[in-house]
Design a protein that fits this description.
The protein is elongated. With 392 residues, the chain is mostly helical. It contains 19 helices and no strands. It folds into three domains: 139 residues, Tetracycline Repressor, domain 2 (Orthogonal Bundle), CATH 1.10.357.10; 67 residues, Arc Repressor Mutant, subunit A (Orthogonal Bundle); 121 residues, Tetracycline Repressor, domain 2 (Orthogonal Bundle), CATH 1.10.357.
C-alpha cells in the first residue's frame, strides 16, 4: 500500500516549486528534495511532471467543491447562490494563490489538461454554476431567453482575467475587493424584462423568430399557426393582430431581417453612439481572431496565461489595442448611455474573459458549428452591452 503522507508531501512540494518556476523549469529531483522522498518514489504516484501538476490542481479543486457545497447549503434563491459562488471563487483563489496561479497559468494552456481526470472537477464546478443560472431562469429571476452556457463562459472568463490582473499584470493585489464591481456587470446581463415594460413589438418579433424556426425545420406547407404560436408563447389569436395569414408571416421574415441589416449597415459608415461602437469592437475582436485561426490557438494556449507576455514590450502593444474599450466606456459615461459606476478595468476583463472562454470551447473543446458560433456571438455582444448600458 502506498504511503499517503509521502504522496501529500510530493503534492505540497510540487505546488511550491511549480508555482514559483512553472512546469518547464521545475525538476522532479528538486521536488523530491523538498518533499524529502527518494527521486524514484515520485513515479509510484505520478506518471510524470504533467500528471503531478494536474493532480495538484485536482486535490485543490476537490477541496474547493466540498467547501463550495457547504457555502451554498441553505441558500435557496438563485440570485443569492450566484452571488455566493462568485464571491467564493474570488476568495478561494485569493487564499490559495499557488493553486490559482498553477491552474490558470500552467494547466489551462495545455491541451493534455483537458483530457486529464482533473478536468472532471472543472466540469463539475461549472455544472453547479450552470444549474444556478438555469434555476434562476426557470423561476423568472433571470432571463429565460438566453443560452446560460454563454453566461457561464462569460463569468468564468471574467474571473480568469481578474486573476491575471492580480498574478500577471499586477494591477490589483486581491480579487475579492472587485466583487461588487463584478456583480454590477453580471446581474444586468441576467435581469429579466418586466411584463409591464414589454413592448408590443416584442410579441411580433417572437412570432417571427418562432415562424422562422418552424418553417426551416418543417417547411412552409407542414408548418402550422398553432405550432408557431406555441413556440412563440402567445395566444393563437394574437398572431392575427400582426399578420394577415401564414403567407404574410412568411414574407415578413425577410422584411424584419433586412430592416435590421440596413440599420447595421448604417453603423458601418457612421457610428456615433458609444454602445454601437462597443458592439462593433466586440464583433471586430472576435472576427479578427476567428479569421486568424493559427494565431488564435497560439494566443489562447501559449500567450494569454504566460507570465512572460505581461513582462514583455509586446504587452504594451496589446494594452494600447485593448485600451480602446476604456475610451468607448468613458465616452458612454459622458453622454449617459453607459452607467457611471462601471469599473472600466473589470469590464475589460469581462470582455477578454468572454472571448477567451468561448473561443476555447469552440476551438479547443471542438464545440459548435460555424452557424452556432455566429448565433452565440450575437448573444455575447448583446450580453456585454447589457452589462454596461444605462437602461438594460
Amino acid at each position: 500500500m502506498l504511503n499517503d503522507s509521502k504522496k501529500k508531501a510530493i503534492l505540497n512540494a510540487g505546488e511550491k516549486i511549480m508555482s514559483l518556476k512553472g512546469l518547464n523549469n521545475s525538476s522532479m529531483s528538486e521536488i523530491a528534495g523538498i518533499a524529502k522522498v527518494p527521486y524514484g518514489s515520485i513515479y509510484q504516484y505520478f506518471n510524470g511532471k504533467e500528471d503531478l501538476l494536474y493532480s495538484i490542481a485536482g486535490v485543490r479543486l476537490k477541496k474547493a467543491l466540498l467547501l463550495l457545497n457547504e457555502q451554498l447549503e441553505g441558500i435557496e434563491d438563485p440570485v443569492s447562490r450566484l452571488r455566493k459562488m462568485i464571491w467564493f471563487g474570488l476568495h478561494y483563489n485569493d487564499t490559495h494563490r499557488r493553486y490559482a496561479r498553477l491552474l490558470l497559468m500552467e494547466c489551462r494552456y495545455s491541451k493534455s489538461f483537458y483530457q486529464h481526470e482533473t478536468y472532471a472537477f472543472i466540469r463539475q464546478y461549472a455544472g453547479i454554476f450552470l444549474s444556478i443560472l438555469k434555476e434562476g431562469a426557470e423561476t423568472h429571476l433571470f432571463r429565460d431567453d438566453i443560452d446560460m452556457r454563454i453566461v457561464r463562459d462569460i463569468v468564468f472568463g471574467l474571473l480568469d482575467w481578474e486573476k491575471l490582473s492580480c498574478f500577471a499584470i499586477g494591477e490589483i493585489e486581491e480579487t475579492v475587493p472587485e466583487y461588487q464591481d463584478i456583480i454590477s456587470l453580471v446581474l444586468p446581463m441576467l435581469k429579466p424584462r418586466s411584463y409591464e415594460k414589454e413592448k408590443e413589438s416584442d410579441k411580433s418579433i417572437r412570432i417571427l423568430k418562432a415562424a422562422e424556426k418552424i418553417f426551416s425545420e418543417k417547411g412552409y406547407h407542414q408548418a402550422t399557426i398553432s405550432g408557431i404560436t406555441k413556440l412563440a408563447n402567445v395566444a393563437e389569436g394574437t398572431i392575427y393582430e400582426y399578420f394577415k395569414d401564414k403567407e404574410d408571416l412568411l414574407l415578413s421574415i425577410p422584411q424584419h431581417h433586412y430592416k435590421d441589416h440596413i440599420e447595421k449597415m448604417s453603423e458601418i459608415f457612421h457610428i456615433k453612439t458609444p454602445l454601437k461602437k462597443l458592439r462593433r469592437l466586440i464583433r471586430y475582436h472576435f472576427f479578427l481572431h476567428l479569421t486568424e485561426r493559427n494565431f488564435l490557438k497560439v494566443f489562447l494556449l501559449h500567450i494569454q496565461f504566460n507570465q512572460q507576455f505581461y513582462n514583455s514590450p509586446v504587452y504594451d502593444t496589446f494594452r494600447q489595442y485593448i485600451n480602446i474599450i476604456n475610451d468607448i466606456l468613458e465616452e458612454g459615461k459622458n453622454d449617459g448611455s453607459i452607467r457611471s459606476d462601471v469599473n472600466n478595468r473589470v469590464f475589460r476583463n469581462l470582455f477578454l474573459g468572454a472571448f477567451s472562454h468561448i473561443s476555447l470551447r469552440w476551438f479547443i473543446l471542438k464545440e459548435k458549428s460555424k452557424a452556432d458560433k455566429m448565433e452565440e456571438l450575437d448573444e455575447v455582444v448583446s450580453l456585454l452591452c447589457r452589462a454596461v448600458a444605462s437602461s438594460s
